[in-house]
Each structure stands twice: as C-alpha cells, then as structure tokens.
Amino acid sequence: MSQAKTVVKVEHVSKFFKLPTESTYSLRTAMVNRFKGIKGYKEQHVLKDISFEVKEGDFFGIVGRNGSGKSTLLKIISQIYVPEKGSVTVDGKLVSFIELGVGFNPELTGRENVYMNGALLGFSKEEVNAMYDDIVDFAELGAFMNQKLKNYSSGMQVRLAFSVAIKAQGDVLILDEVLAVGDEAFQRKCNDYFMERKKSGKTTILVTHDMGAVKKYCNQAVLIENGLVKALGNPDDVANQYSFDNAVAPTSVTEDKKEAQEESLCVDNLKVELLSANTISPREKVQFRISYDVLDDTATYIAFSLTDIDRNIWIYNDNSLDYMTNGKGHKSVVYTCDMPSLNDIKLKLQVSVRDDDDKMVAFADTANSPVVFIVRDDIATDDISEKDSATGLLQRRGKWEFKK
Fold first, then answer.
1. With the C-alpha atoms ordered 358, 362, 364, 366, is the resulting torsion angle positive or negative?
2. Burial 357-369 (b: 16+ CB within 10 A, else e)
3. Cα distance between residue 60 and residue 47, in whole Å
4. CA 20 to 30 Å from 96, out of 37, 246, 298, 371?
5. Which domains does the chain show, CATH number per domain?
6. Highest mean pLDDT range out of 98-107, 242-251, 290-299, 393-402?
7. Cβ pair 177, 146 in contact under 8 A
8. DSSP state for residue 2 in the 8-state scheme
9. DSSP assignment letter at 149
C-alpha cells in the first residue's frame, strides 16, 4: 500500500509582529532613540517553531484558544503572510477561505461576484464556468444571481460566499471558523457536504473552536498553544486536550458565597482533591477527597455537584446529609461514584460545607475546582452518531467513606 504524499508541509515556522511602543514625529528624536538602542516597538511572537505535515486526503484540524496563532498560521500557509523563520510548502492548488465575503462587491450581481471571487482564488474564467452551476445549486440562489449583492439578505450572502469556497475545485481547501454559517437547513447541507468530502479523499484544513466538528470530520489535528504545538495526531486526543485545558475558567463569586466567606469563622482549610484521573471513560469511577477543619462545635455536612461546564447545569449532586459531623477538629471524607451513561462531557466539581440549619459556612474556590472529563473510548472512529453527547440528570449512586 503506497503512502499518501505530503501536500502541505510546515517546517519550523515562526512569526512575530512589531507593535509600536511610542510614536515620534521628530527625526532628531528618532535618531537619538536609535543610538540609545530604543527601537520604538516590541516584538509580539505569535508562532514559535511550528512543524507538521498534511497528507493528501487528510481532513486536518487546527485548534487553539483565541490569540494562540491559528489564523496567523493559516495566512502563512495561504501565502498572505511571510514567516520570519521556517517555510511552508504546498503541493497543488490551494483554495483559502479565511473570512466570509472577503472580495465580494455589493454593487455587482451575484453572478459577477462568483466570477470575481473565482479570479481572486486563482481560477480562470473557463474554470469558473465549469464550477458555476455547482456553486449556484449549492447556494440555492438560482433565481437571484442577476440581482446586485446589496439586495441580498445577509443569509443569502453567506450562502453564496461559502458555496464559492467549498465548490471551488482546488487540491487543498482551507476553512477558518466558517462551519456554523447560514440557517439550520443550510448547515445540515454543509454537514452532508463535509461528510462526503471526508470520504472522497480531498484534502481539507479546518480551523475551529468546535471540538465536535474536529471529532466528526478530522482524521488528524494539531493543538496550538502560545504559538507552540501542544498536541498533534489523533483528533479525539487533540480535541479532548483542548476541551480539558479550557474547562477551568474563572467563576464569579455569588453574594451568598461572599457572605459565607466573610462571616464564617467555624470552618477553615477546605480542600478538594481529585483522586481519580482527570479524563476517564464512563465505566470508570470518579473519586475525590474533601477535608476541612471545624473550629467550634458546629454540626456540618458536605454538599457538592458535578456541573456540566458547557451548559452550566447540574448533572450529579449529593446533599443527602449522609455525612453529618459534630464537634470541632479535622474532617476528611472520600466520595466515590460512577456515571456510566455519560459521554463527551466536562464536569466541574463544586463543593460547599453547610451547617445543620442548611447555611453555607464554606465553599471551595470554583476557579481552581477539579475538572472531570468523561469520554467513551470504545467507539469506532467512523461511528459518528455514537460520538454525540449523552447527558442528563443522573440518579445518585455514590457513597461516602469517612477518613481519620
């Protein structure tokens, strides 16, 4: 079996931008600053030694937080930017679609815009002629192509722009954050197209924040963090790493928590420690330890929830009063539970200590709360429907274990 050829090769690419730190309109001041070694700008290093390869037929995902350098990398691959170091080699005709509607003229008709945009993408008039009917059919705008673009609704413009990009017959298609375009019906149509493209063996590079899309479409992916490659390879692993990295976000302190923090003197040193792994399969158990010190004779108990980070709803909670303690001293308890019906879900563990009047007397720092990522590892790579999340409120099925 012959090995697929490399169509995009990124080798040790670095890129920085010069950001001015001061402005001067005086030649004398500029010369003095130059002799003093004052550049008048600072270097913002966006990419730092990025390397990977995209093989022919790959559906390759590029993920990372805002500001990580993804779009800059795409512009270097598309030859819009030139890297300070390293090189990018592209074998074949590249169709780059970085922003919806770039190059469209509202004073021209839809038909004229298709030809103009095709020319900007590097296609001849004859090549656009061959693609024109497919573009119009996919956009479903056959009755409007002789109208000026300014008379189109925003949704019609999006459909036309997106259709030009994905129906252009290039060797490599680059898409930047453009999967969620158009109405629901058009999105379904786009989904069908991407599934067909994935099976056809055409090369696609996709930048997205949608980890579901990465798992659904991509066969390879790379995670960029602070201008460096953090993870490269299996799309499920890369998407899971990205989701886990972004699961812990600062959470505002509510008024009742502020009050508990300011007024409570009976509980101190509340700590929450995850004993099981951060990433588990549904058949594995979640286990964590909660410990704290009671400073007086207040009776206390623990209440906690495992909250879906994306939807901000409780998935599992226990405030059953099974662990009620009396008297001062150090308290420690381990809780164990399982959640076998969940998949592809990020849960944040939120813990509070309450007294026998159900008043919160302490709460764990939510910004640093443990995060549990539950992902099935027994799904075939081509079984897309099984990869969808299965989430809902769960029946409590855990137990407390007292520690000394």
1. positive
2. eeebbbbbebeeb
3. 19
4. 246
5. 6-245 (3.40.50.300), 255-403 (2.70.50.60)
6. 290-299
7. no
8. P
9. G
Residue 189: both structure tokens together: 């149509």
Q: Quickly tell me which residue has 């060797």 as its tokens.
A: 171
Spatial neighbors of 252 by CB under 8 A, at least 6 apart, are none
Confirm if 33 and 25 have CB atoms less than 8 A apart: no
Q: What's the token pair of residue 36?
A: 């003093």
Beta bridge partners of 289: 273, 334
Q: SS3 letters for 244-300?
A: HHCCCCCCCCCHHHHHHHHHCCCEEEEEEEECCCCEECCCCEEEEEEEEEECCCCCE
| Per-residue b or e along 6-29, where b marks 16 or more CB atoms closer than 10 Å to that residue's CB | ebbebeebbbbeeeeeeeeeeeee
Alpha carbon 298 to chain centroid distance? 45
Tokens of 228: 């460096």
3-state secondary structure of 398: coil
Q: Which of 42, 48, 67, 65 is nearest to 10 (CA)?
A: 48
pLDDT the model gives residue 380: 63
pLDDT at 249 over 50: no
**112-164: pLDDT as tens digits:** 999 988 888 778 899 899 999 999 998 889 889 999 988 888 778 878 888 88
pLDDT at residue 100, rounded to an integer? 61
Distant-in-sequence, close-in-space partners of 90: CB < 8 Å, separation ≥ 6: 7, 8, 77, 172
Please give the single-letter amino acid code of residue 334. Answer: V
Region class of 128: left (phi > 0), else alpha (psi between -120 and 50), else beta? alpha
Q: Tokens in use for 372?
A: 């549990």
| Token code pair at residue 185 | 């019906």
pLDDT value for 11: 94
Distance set, CA 386 to CA 215, 302, 377 (Å): 11, 36, 11
Residue showing tokens 């001041």: 29
Please provide residue 22's backbone torsions phi and psi, each rounded to the nearest 5 degrees: -155, 155
Structure-token match 């030009």, residue found: 164
